[in-house]
Write a structure and sequence with these properties.
With 240 residues, this protein is α/β, with parallel strands linked by helices. It has a single domain, classed as Rossmann fold (3-Layer(aba) Sandwich), CATH 3.40.50.360. 42% of the residues lie in helices and 15% in strands. Strands 1, 2, 3, 4, 5, 6 and 7 form a seven-stranded mixed beta sheet that branches. The radius of gyration is 19 Å and the shape is globular. It starts with a helix and ends in a 6-residue tail after the last helix.
Length: 240
């Protein structure tokens, strides 16, 4: 039987081409434990990729400085310039670290509002690590109960291991082990090239609400099927 690691290596991207990782931080405090966790995960992913011969770049998208514009964009129905820039950085990344605080057994409203402004096609098949912080371990399942379904709706590929850090977790070796496991899962997904295959080879099979993933293969508005019932309704017509 072929070793799975060997199979992954055979499908790897050109090692000379760095992969881009975007860490989205919805923490609002300074310093932010959510930002610290997201950065720690991202740095571990960069290290794992480097150990496997792949260079990676890291960008952090802090939502707190653009929180007011995110709220205004929700009300206006379209993103402002700063939000557009943040979405553009997310779109250009090959993988995402999604970091959110947890309040009252729910993900941050700031994080959800930002997600509401993302085109449905923006993250198709892109690997993502789900991460959160909170004041008690009682919130741990929020990652899989709320954040995982959100990224499933966006048709991303959440890593099997989600991460959550309550105050007592920071001094535990178990958190470091889980971070390494999640970072390794992300690295293996990136090495496999599965995201590009799914997004490119299966593009026409998706029902697109927007054309947000155009950066991957230079797709244009011509790729949207305006004859579907959904698009006829959006244009004020009647379904067939």
């Amino acid at each position: 039987m072929t070793d799975s690691h060997t199979a992954i290596q055979s499908n790897a991207n050109d090692a000379a081409t760095p992969v881009a990782i975007a860490a989205v931080n919805a923490g609002v405090s300074d310093p932010s434990s959510t930002r610290l966790l997201a950065h720690r995960i991202a740095q571990r992913a960069v290290d794992v990729l480097r150990d496997n011969g792949i260079q990676a770049t890291l960008t952090t998208i802090d939502l707190a400085p653009i929180a007011t514009e995110i709220a205004q964009s929700i009300v206006a129905g379209f993103p402002g310039k700063k939000v557009q820039a943040a979405i553009g950085r997310l779109a250009s990344a090959d993988a995402t670290i999604a970091g959110t605080p947890v309040y009252k057994a729910g993900i941050s409203g700031l994080f959800k509002s930002f997600a509401d402004l993302i085109d449905d096609d923006l993250l198709i098949a892109k690997p993502v690590i789900l991460a959160g912080t909170g004041g008690t371990a009682r919130h741990e399942m929020v990652m899989d109960e709320q954040l995982r379904p959100l990224f499933a709706f966006l048709r991303a590929i959440p890593a099997p291991t989600s991460l959550y850090a309550a105050p007592e977790a920071w001094g535990s070796s178990e958190l470091g082990k889980r971070i390494t496991r999640a970072a390794t899962e992300l690295a293996l997904l990136l090495r496999s090239g599965v995201a590009a295959q799914i997004a490119d080879d299966n593009w026409q099979a998706y029902q697109h609400q927007f054309n947000g993933n155009a950066t991957r293969a230079e797709r244009t508005i011509a790729d949207i099927d305006f004859t579907t019932d959904l698009m006829r309704l959006a244009a004020g017509g009647q379904p067939t």
